[in-house]
Design a protein that fits this description.
The protein is about 40% helix and about 20% strand. The protein is an alpha+beta fold and about 500 residues long.
């Protein structure tokens, strides 16, 4: 396994090593909140998705959403983590306007998921980042300050939404590794279906813990930068905070354990408050909730519900389908893309009566080139593609059986995007079927050679590069519909 821990911050007095741990808050994919039946749809009008439980009305008791438990267990299994058969909810007590209960229900002492790890890829190679734990907790509401400069408003739509807090070990050693970790984790969550990973909507965000030390020394004092909501910003927060801490230490100062905020506009962090310890929150077991006890059957059912995970899919694409590492990475980056591609390969294999491995590279090159280019131009995601994988397979099959040429296929594909018609219908309506009539091709070749006697003489004298000229002229004379293989064969015979 490649060593990716060589990144250092250059100080005036020598090198410093960065130590990073990330606490990723991922909103669980569920139609209802963690302890109430209120909806979780993003973008609803403020305070329209709030139950009496969420609003902390007196006498309202929480009821655990079993789907949130299932998704947390599936996530833990995907990370190869220990699933605790017994876990418990605690109350984390603090007072803020967007927390109507005056406490957050979380899992400090007995989380539902224990240790696991996540494989990341950076330019320096692969590395496994340890997972310390995953616990379930409820989200707080949202304070809104920009509607009126003299007032603050509270939207409780998010209050009570289920979060998985996925806590890494302090194994990350660079901004690039931090970015790679969040990217890989987001990909895994989207494959599993336990979180949509929409960081711009707040359904996935990270608290970034950073400290610096001399290489090999004990860990330094860390700071925590809260709620960073993009991969790029996470990398920026790590880099800025590390350089800030080095500057403080080299000037003779000390690092204060504190909570900080990231400013996307400047790429810097600023103090928010002193960092609290667990005792400051006065944690104690939630008296309204029973412990969570999981049966072996439940855990195994969760395990069998997992899809093929990203690392396994990438390996299969390379080893079984013969794709390059680059193509495999592009096509399995998103589960929706991988699903589209695999449907294309399966359908194309059936239409051509070939093994998937024999046509996968062709399909992959076309998808990553023609398809992705068109979708980018149209501003569409793959699940909104105007051309389905089955329709694309029909198009590629027409090229494979020499009904149309590769260049004509580009024209047909554009027509498919515009009209929604099938490839065969467009080919027939526009008379685009490839000509394989050797008599017609021989006639065109004879006319071209007669009109270019000087070039024929040059070719026969050894200027073989002119062969491409004759191919192009013949294809032009045939309206682009002639079979290229037959043109090459008949031209070679005529010129020799």
């Amino acid at each position: 396994m490649a060593d990716t821990s060589t990144y250092t911050v250059k100080g005036d007095t020598g090198d410093w090593e960065i130590v990073v741990g990330l606490e990723v808050h991922a909103q669980v994919t569920a139609r209802a909140k963690l302890f109430s039946g209120a909806a979780t749809d993003f973008g609803a009008e403020p305070n329209t998705q709030v139950s009496l439980v969420d609003a902390a009305m007196p006498g309202m008791l929480p009821v655990l959403n079993g789907e949130c438990v299932r998704q947390a267990v599936r996530t833990g299994l995907a990370l190869g983590a220990e699933i605790h058969r017994w876990s418990r909810f605690d109350r984390k007590n603090y007072f803020y306007a967007d927390l109507p209960q005056g406490y957050q229900i979380s899992q400090l002492y007995h989380p539902i998921v224990g240790e696991g790890d996540l494989l990341i890829e950076t330019d320096a190679g692969e590395k496994r980042i340890g997972i310390e734990r995953i616990h379930l907790e409820q989200d707080a509401g949202k304070s809104v300050h920009d509607l009126d400069p003299t007032k603050s408003f509270v939207d409780l739509n998010r209050s009570g939404c289920a979060l998985m807090e996925i806590v890494s070990k302090p194994d990350i050693r660079s901004p690039a590794e931090a970015a790679a970790y969040v990217t890989a984790l987001r990909q895994l969550l989207r494959y599993v279906g336990s979180c949509d990973g929409n960081m711009d909507e707040g359904s996935m965000r990270a608290d970034v813990n950073v400290s610096v030390r001399r290489p090999g020394a004990a860990f330094g004092t860390r700071t925590e930068t809260k709620n960073v909501n993009s991969v790029r910003f996470i990398a920026q927060a790590v880099e800025h905070e590390a350089k800030r801490q080095v500057a403080v230490l080299e000037s003779g100062g000390t690092i204060v354990q504190e909570t900080r905020l990231f400013d996307p506009g400047t790429g810097t962090t600023r103090p928010m408050r002193s960092k609290e310890d667990a005792h400051d929150y006065r944690y104690f077991p939630d008296p309204d909730l029973l412990p969570v006890e999981l049966s072996e059957d439940f855990v195994e059912t969760c395990r069998h519900s997992l899809p093929e995970l990203p690392a396994a899919k990438r390996h299969r694409y390379i080893e079984s389908l013969g794709l390059t590492d680059y193509l495999a990475g592009v096509l399995m980056a998103e589960k929706a893309t991988a699903d589209w591609f695999e449907t294309l390969v399966a359908d194309l294999a059936t239409r051509t009566n070939k093994a998937p491995a024999d046509i996968a590279r062709t399909a992959a090159n076309w998808a990553s080139g023609e398809l992705f280019g068109a979708l980018k131009r149209l501003g569409l995601e793959i699940d909104a593609s105007p051309v389905s994988p089955t329709s694309a397979a029909e198009l590629l099959a027409l090229v494979d059986n020499a009904t149309i040429s590769g260049s004509v296929a580009k024209t047909v594909f554009e027509a498919m995007l515009e009209t929604g018609d099938s490839a065969s219908a467009i080919v027939d309506a526009r008379g685009l079927r490839q000509v394989s009539d050797t008599g017609a091709i021989d006639t065109a070749i004879a006319q071209i050679l007669a009109a270019n006697a000087d070039k024929v003489a040059q070719y026969r004298a050894g200027k073989e590069a002119l062969f491409g000229f004759f191919v192009g002229q013949t294809m032009k004379a045939m309206g682009g519909k002639a079979n290229p293989a037959i043109i090459n064969e008949r031209l070679k015979a005529a010129l020799s």
